[in-house]
Amino acid sequence: MDLKFVLPQERIAAMTKAGFWHDRTVIDFLDEAANEVPDKIAFTDWNSTTGQATTFSFRQMKKLSERLGAGLAALGVGKGDVVSYQLPNWWQFVALHLASARIGAITNPLMPIFRERELTHMLGLAESKVLVVPQRFRDFDYPAMVGNIRAKLPALKHLLVIGGEGEQSFEAFAARRWEDETDAQTLFAGRRQGPNEVTQILYTSGTTGESKGVMQTANTMYSNLVEYARRLKLEQNDVVLMASPLAHQTGFMYGMMMPIMLKAKTVLHDVWSGEAAAKRIQDEGCTFTMAATPFLADLANLPTLGKHDISSLRIFLCAGAPIPEALAKNAAQRLGCAIMSAWGMTENGAVTTTKPGDPDAKVFGTDGCALPGMEVKVVDAEGKTCPTGSEGDLKAKGAGIFVGYLKRPELNGIDSDGWFDTGDRARMDADGYIRITGRSKDIIIRGGENIPVIEVEGILYRHPAVQDVAVVAMPDARLGERACAFATLKPGAPPLTLADVRAFLAENKMAKNYYPERLEIVAEMPRTPSGKIQKFKLRDTAKSLKPE
After folding, report:
1. Which residue from 437, 501, 512 is spatially nearest to 469, judged by alpha carbons?
2. What is the spatial distance between Cα 489 and Cα 222, in angstroms, rounded to a whole number?
3. Residues 290, 435: one domain?
4. Comparing 326-330, 484-488, 503-507, which segment has the lowest mean pLDDT?
5. Lowest-pLDDT range, 182-191, 312-321, 369-378, 393-402?
6. Contact call for residues 126 and 3 (beta carbons, < 8 A)
7. Mean pLDDT of all residues in 53-77
8. Of the candidates 417, 441, 465, which is a domain's last residue?
């Protein structure tokens, strides 16, 4: 498969010479940890579906990666093939990534919220050879869903089901001693994944009407993780609580890759609640977590917080959307830990963060400054650097920038000087700290999850009653933003309700998290002279609205 990734030799040489690309993969770090601290706990999870906790040491994780890697190879997964899995924050997610990396396969995590529409596109574009899903999670039947789209996915050769039966049973697959059925070490040596080869494809929502597959290498991701951990002073004795989905870059990089690099322990959390998180912080001695604004709000506002000893928690780094100042100050007081801000994307990880010890004005009023190895700038419509404090388009450049969108290099948005067009608007202060002020690209971020507006609108335009539709952000204290749909109706069309809209999206197999949470029927849309809908006017209207 031709990924069409873009990684010029000049970039490799420059980043290596600068000391930001370390030429080490996740397997290098895992094997080192298994050798130096073999019996230390690497990961512990809690499966809310089965009510079971599972714990693995670094030695056990290495052994498991070898077994599953040999097993995937036996299923026909070759070097450069894609292994997809749609899993919550369970140990199997971690094991599958490590197994894939060990045999040179590419990991493609998929959010559990995705349904037939999204999966058909994503699995098809990636030409995934193997897909792993739960039998049930949050009372949804995943194998049945895959069965509905299997005929549209000719490249998909194997489906493994956690909690499944027969030949699809993941448990039976994981129990078989595949490593004894082949010359495993020769296999692994021949398949060893290089630090500049694509190791991850993670889909993100954009403005093109379909999700794009972001491609990352070990070098692009670890260039970020080394500097991130150094800035936050994270080390081997830290205990990472990860409730953000591992199928998001936040969970993947900072809840899986980074702790392995640090030889630190990770506590995985599959279904979020502030109460459950407080208990896990207390029971496991968690010292660090990274999550979106709603997670911080839920934990800080937990009525029973005082009943739990969360004194071990040292840092809560909040990303996904700017933290409201009132929330940040309240959280710092209630949680008794450092509250930090960050900005980043699937395409580049966390690019900016505040620093430990920063004054309140930076912590509560900015999204941080660039990590070593990264640069940011704010430019005007002509591409000129904006004066300090002025709003403009945010550009990013450096070691952590991705190597392109899967099979869509024309969409990469990276200029000849290496600057990536983030699609975000920002302003920068005299110290180089940025504050995200909005987005030029047409998405809504609801609780850290991107809502692909054009996809939602594209479906709703097919509704027989809809003349025009525009979906815009509606501010929300907890989730940051929610989606509000403005619509005009065709002459003579019957009344349209929010329930009708949601039912229509469900019929078209769209994930529930993308549904609008308010519907406003208007007589006409505000338009430019050329006929384009003026969404900024709709956003102004939506500022005073609330979910139905």
Report:
1. 501
2. 51
3. yes
4. 326-330
5. 312-321
6. no
7. 98
8. 441
* Number of structural domains the chain divides into: 2
- pTM above threshold 0.90: no
**Backbone conformation region of residue 171, classed left if phi is above 0, alpha if psi is from -120 to 50, else beta:** alpha
Residue 344 lies in a domain: yes
**DSSP assignments along 360-426, one per residue:** HHHHHH---EEPTTEEEEEE-TTSPBPPTT--EEEEEEETT----BTT-GGG--B-TTS-EEEEEEE
Residue type, 53: A
Please check whether residue 314 lies inside any domain of the structure.
yes
**Crossing angle for the helix pair 91-102 and 58-74, nearest 10 degrees?**
60
**Which of 441, 462, 479 is where one domain is finished?**
441
463/433 same-domain check = no
CB-count burial class (<10 Å; 0-12, 13-18, 19+) for 151: exposed
Closest CA to 257 of 412, 520, 61: 61
Cβ neighbours of 385 (radius 10 Å): 13
Examine the domain organization and report whether 470 and 427 are in the same domain.
Answer: no
Strand 434-439 to strand 420-428: parallel, antiparallel, or no bridges (unpaired)? antiparallel
DSSP 255: I
Eight-class DSSP state of 533: B
Within 10 angstroms of residue 2's Cβ, the number of other Cβ atoms is: 6
CATH of the domain at 312: 3.40.50.12780
